[in-house]
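Write out a record, fold above all:
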Amino acid sequence: MLEQKRFHFVGIGGAGMSALALLLLQAGKKVSGSDLQMSSYAQRVKKQGAKIFLGHHPSNLRDAEIVIFSSAISLDNPELRLAREKNIPLMHRGELLADLLKDKMSIAVSGMHGKTSVANMLATALLRADYQPCVALGGESFDIEGNAYLGKDPYFVAEADESDGSFLHLSPTYAIITNIEPEHLNFYKSEEKIIAAFLQFSRKVKEVIFYNGEDRNTKRALEELESSKKVSFGFLPENDIFAKNIQENGIVTSFDCFFKQEKLGRIEIPLLGRYNVANCLAAIGVSLHLGLDFKKLEESFRNYKGVARRGEIKRRDEILLVEDYAHHPTEIAAVISSYLPIKKNRGGRIITIFQPHRYTRTKSLAKDFGRCFEKVDLIILTDIYPASEKPIPGVSTDLISEAINEKEGPPTVLLPKDEIVDYLKGIVRKGDIIMVLGAGDIGELSGELARIKIR
């Protein structure tokens, strides 16, 4: 359906939707869109020439030839209703991405955690090696200065969204699977159905899948695939690509990179955590397969700028202020662990501010949230960010607080979001590490926290 010239996006302010809108604008299409608020993503699309409407109203469709929507949009949305009445074609975001990828040498990055970072690392490596890929990210890259890039080469790096099963629309040339674990249970209902979906996805990959060779569920999903279609990465020598001699110096991590037991060289990247080493290995695997020189990869990672809200350091003087999108217990535990050596050096505390994301996730993973904060000194919890969900009776941040207390975890404070900064002003000390965690709008506090005075 890409022959149409006028596209309308319902919910254009999201990271994924805005990336596709930007690519269409750069390709010469007319784009309009609506959302409930003017996010930074919507503002960028507007600056690039799109017509943006606040609120969802039938009149917003105007002369649209095709309407794009995501799973976050209710099917009784007034714009979708009018499109059906007027027989304007409707297309899910995943279907549009599949159309954009179908004639490209596509690399789809999938998995529960790390998709945006891996996709950005790969896209950055290609760009710095003088390739010109198309890129569609689920976050704000400091390397490509946005979440989308329209290149002239046949390569296309894109995130494959498993949250609503829409990654099954894709038939990519290559794929990366970072990890598979219980997540999005409001959609999948069980871990077995998640694994089955990734198996189905893997069967649609045309060439090679690069996968986490130490993730149990990923190995289960891929066990039927012939070995010639799989390249593993990890920390053990059994993997095709693996890391050894990992060292952290301040906020820089370095490691020796091996491929098929041969040492290729040493990678240095200005990020913390073993999970970021694994992310690097995934990007390196694809890059080598595509013919990139390892020396170019060393340079690319050494100068890597990263993605907003993925371990983004907002302040580093008397306090260290870190903002991260982590919203799943596994992600939270990994981010916290990566800063424990820095805590020891600074002599302060780790204070986490966490905004749960979605009622369904809070309900299904409350016990796991209760365990993932065990290594911090103070937890500040605020109200659940609902995303597109309606409240569930009996589900609130209290479930997480109770789970933490059951495990005799760190002191926990429950506060409305607008009271958190004032509370911290009274308790923050020199040397403290403050972590702002969550996938909702909790990041809005970072600007204020970056300016507070330390007693």
